[in-house]
Amino acid sequence: MKNFLIVALFILLLTNSFAQNNSDLEELVNWMTGSFTSEEQSKNDSDYYNISLEMHRIWKENNSGYWLYVEQAVAATKDKPYRQRIYHLFEEDGVIKSVIYSIPDEKKFVGGWKNISVFDNLSPEQLETRKGCEVIIERKDENTFIGSTVEKNCTSNLHGATYATTEVIITKDTMISWDRGFNDKDEQVWGATKGGYIFKKIIK
Fold this sequence. Notes:
Elements: H1 2-32, E1 34-37, H2 39-44, E2 51-58, E3 66-74, E4 83-92, E5 95-102, E6 128-129, E7 135-141, E8 144-148, E9 154-155, E10 163-170, E11 174-182, E12 188-191, E13 197-203
Antiparallel strand pairs: 1-2, 1-13, 2-3, 3-4, 4-5, 5-6, 5-7, 7-8, 8-10, 9-10, 10-11, 11-12, 11-13
């Protein structure tokens, strides 16, 4: 009986831990999903552009985690995004990871967040992993998640860079994202210099 109680207690603790991790992941995805804008920041600081950010779930039947289609564009030319990605969020060894993928023939998916059925003919196997660019995310407190890429692992050749970094702060209604590129002398060559873009959620 004693051994049975010990095993039962272990299973209970393990189940509670798993549920907590899944709860954190689910809440994070809910906070990340929706339509965002940096309009307010751009009005207060001319160094920042008014950027539209769309993040919406796709492949909801896939049980390997959560998949988000991500589209960024200058608000004035929203139909011409400068960045399209797919994020795969999952929990592994107690850590939440967001793996970043490039999309083949991405122009076919512009505005896909309005009608996610366009992704039915695309599969995860067709995506190209942006190796080293995954973002490791952890819960800071009840109201905040924080995350970043790892060291210099995310390579980049944009504007003379050799690597890129990403830092994020995520709350229920706000996402702060700071992407920067650095050369081989660790000098910043692209990205905001004052801090991250502040995106406010406008549609859940």
